[in-house]
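REQUEST
  id: r-88c1
  op: predict_structure
  target: Insulinase family protein
  payload:
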Amino acid sequence: TTVLGGGKTSRLYQRLVYQDKLVDDVSASVQPFALSSQVQIQADVKDGVDPAKVEAVIDEELKKFIAQGPTADELQRAQVAYRAGFV
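RESPONSE
  id: r-88c1
  status: 200
  body:
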C-alpha cells in the first residue's frame, strides 16, 4: 500500500492530487488478518468533482499496478519508509 497510497510520492497521490487535481488527499492502508487482509483506499474528493470519476482513476491505477507491478525505485522508497518506521 505504500507504493499505491503511502504519501506524496505514491502513485495515487501523484495521479489524483498533482496530475488530475481531483482530490485534496489520498491514502492507502492494509489491515492484515489471519486468513485474509483488507486494503483500504481513502480519498478526499474536491468540491464539484464526481466521486465516480475518482473511483474510475483509482481502478485504472490498480489495474496498472497489478499488470506491471512496482518499479525498482518504488520498492526502494517503500523499504526506506518501512525501515524508518522502526527508528
